[in-house]
Amino acid sequence: MRLYDIAKIVRSKNAGPFNLTVDLIFEDAKKYETVLKAASFNPFAIAGLYGVDADDVRIYPFKRILAIKVTMPRPISSGAPGDTDVYGSQQHFPLAEMEIV
Amino acid sequence: MDNLKFLSICGMLGYGYPLESLCRGIDEKIDFIGADNGSTDPGPYYLGSGKGFVKNIQLERDLEPALVEARKNNIPLIIGSAGGSGAKAHVDNFLKILFKIAEKNNLHFKLAVIHSDIEKTTALNALAAGKISPCGHSRTLKAEDVNACTNIVAQMGTEPIIAALKNGADVVIAGRACDTAIFAALPIMRGFDPGLALHAAKIAECGAMCSVPVGANDSLIVRMEKDSFTVTPANPEKKCTPETVAAHSLYEQPNPECFFEPEGKIDMSESVFEQIDERSVKVSGTKLVPSAKETIKLEGAAFRGFRSITIAGMSDPVAMANLEVIESSVRKAVSENLKDIIASENYTLRFLKYGINGVRGIADKSLPLLTETGLLIEAIAPTQELADTVISLARSTALHQSFPGRKATAGNLAFPFSPSDFQGGEVYEFSIYHLMEVEDMAEFFPITYKEL
């Protein structure tokens, strides 16, 4: 199943001009755990989707509200020549398309 | 004092808020009004150019009722990152509006203006002394990055705002300020726990964003107490829940459990969120871990040229399938044609293909082509005239460019406008987003006072 179909909220935004952060919020603990424990959901796979180093991808589980935060560097800083998304608010894809297995 | 109340007008002064929300705050006998007026979100242009991303008409509309109510009730009004990016040009623009409102309403008060501009020599000296380090994945800073900046600002913490308030300021207009400094200054000055005050401020800086129905354009009332704080949306149609308030710590932050301010690390890993009435949430357990060295965040935007763009659509399937051929042919033709006017290494030409790679940057070749594709061509060159020239030639060449299998030999592009090309003005890039170690924050944020 696609991550986009499992999560209740899938959103992306800048966290400062040099970082992108993707928030995944789930309806129930089962879905939250499923994604968190899925073999396909890991820094290496995410790094590949966004063209960044796996060492720079951080996954922060935030159980209090059944959320997972994924933070990574932006390849081009916000609004610099070559950027496609100044606010970073449409960068939840390609992560949202990830198959959770 | 066992409690202190304040109102955050809205997430961004200028974006609008219901006047009733401000009045409800006043009815609650708040101790001060605060508002954030800045952000790096809209990109580097605003810091670089000295212009605001909120128009003066919006600012005046939002500032007037807040200033009038603050003076009528004799409570401080604190505005941070005035004018958008908080550089001198932004602050001066903001002050013009403030003076106009004060005169119109015959308001008299003690004004404190805190500037946050950093001289290039200050940044260069700190760099040479090894006191500047990257922040949030910015690159290692080089002297040339500093020299390319049009404006450099530092984000002030609570300290300069506290100094202004202690000197009796009724209205504080701060240049670039940490969002938290606006709201945590007075509570910390009055002796409330700094960790709780900074956490409350972090939530408050977005106005009623931490409530449902979602929306930043409304006010939030915060009540500080000895061991906790309580947030309540001013608008009775909105409510906070432990989930909405906790979720706010995800927003625009790299890490949901903590954040960093000049005062230190604010640790929320043991924060407790409790519903105490239908619309209010009480927060406790947040701790400040003071940092060993005091640092301030520097922001600088470097000039990178002038931009011109053209926008067109395409519907011919063979033309869309051959966009890469069209692009490379246009690049070659423009470079040849303009070689005596501008060398190709002195400008950049970009083809953003909406429907193919306009948003994600990288085209997924496994996806089928749509029935339409949007094409945006961008030129960046050292002058506006050269950028206009490059885009003009790129546009006419792209329109008529031939490619294998072409059937629509009259033109490849659908332009929605005449003229079809647009000037984007100066282009900037955030070249400084770094931490600078300081001995004494105060020296970087001079305060001037004025009696109105």
In a nutshell, what does this entry contain?
The complex is a heterodimer of chains A (101) and B (452). Chain A is built from three helices and four strands. Chain A is an alpha+beta fold and 101 residues long.
- Number of H/I helices of chain B: 13
Structural class of chain A: alpha+beta
Q: Which strand order do you get reading across the main beta sheet of chain A?
A: 1-2-4-3
CATH class of chain A: Alpha Beta
* Chain oligomer state: heterodimer
Helix and strand run of chain A: HEEHHEE
Radius of gyration of chain B: 25 Å
Rg calc of chain A: 13 Å
Shape of chain B: elongated
Tally of separate domains of chain B? 2
What features would you highlight for this structure?
heterodimer; A: 101 residues; alpha+beta; Alpha-Beta Plaits; four-stranded antiparallel sheet; 3 helices; 21% helix; globular; B: 452 residues; 2 domains; ten-stranded mixed sheet; six-stranded antiparallel sheet; 13 helices; 27% strand
Summarize the structure in words.
The complex is a heterodimer of chains A (101) and B (452). Chain A is of the alpha+beta class and 101 residues long. Chain A has one domain (3-96): 2-Layer Sandwich (Alpha-Beta Plaits). Chain A has helices at 3-6, 29-37, 43-50; strands spanning 9-14, 19-25, 58-62, 67-73. The model of chain A has no long low-confidence stretch (mean pLDDT 94). Chain B is an alpha+beta fold and 452 residues long. Chain B folds into two domains: 3-119 and 153-299 and 440-451, no CATH class; 316-413, no CATH class. Chain B has 13 helices and 19 strands. Chain B has helices spanning 19-27, 45-49, 56-72, 88-104, 120-128, 143-147, 158-166, 179-189, 194-204, 242-248, 317-321, 323-337, 384-400, and strands at residues 4-8, 32-36, 77-80, 110-114, 132-134, 149-154, 171-174, 220-224, 228-233, 258-261, 264-267, 272-277, 280-284, 287-290, 295-314, 348-354, 373-381, 421-437, 447-451. In chain B, helix 7 packs across helix 8 (179-189). The mean pLDDT of chain B is 95.
